[in-house]
Amino acid sequence: MFESLLERVRSPSTGVGLVVDGPNVFREEFDVDLDELRDLGRSEGTLVVSRLYVNEHATPGLIQAAEARGFEVVVTSGDVDVRLAVDATALVTSERIGTLVVVSRDTDFKPVLERARVDGIETLAVAPGTYGRSDALQNAADRAITLDTSDETDG
């Protein structure tokens, strides 16, 4: 692990991995825009991964809209949280990214953010709204944004 961290220091990746927890973000109480999420990811650097994770109950309209905006849509019949966490951790350890952006309100992703920080990856937690903000995610990340107010805080 120490050697991996040293390698990152020598040649840091500037790529950005954007992962979106669909069931926890695209809800009636939140007004989340796919274009805004993509632009937010791009504002952090070159997007090398932009994925929207959904379950089998996702509407075809959401899937089509996400694909039209450049998102890779991952549909799972199992637990979306587990698939997103495993994929995000694999992305962190792949050395393809220098920044991980997690869009969710779910505390389950705290270990992913912690692992990313240990590996020298910049982390950004994005909450879909004040009501959906997870203090645990915000505190685990280097930075945090709440979409409804665009209120950025240090983590």
UniProtKB/TrEMBL annotation:
Alphabetical list of InterPro entries matching this protein: NYN
All residue ranges annotated as the NYN domain in the record: 16-148
Residues making up the signal peptide according to the UniProt record: none
Gene3D superfamilies to which the protein is assigned, alphabetical: 5'-nuclease
Gene Ontology terms, MF aspect: RNA nuclease activity
Protein name: NYN domain-containing protein
Lineage: Archaea, Methanobacteriati, Methanobacteriota, Stenosarchaea group, Halobacteria
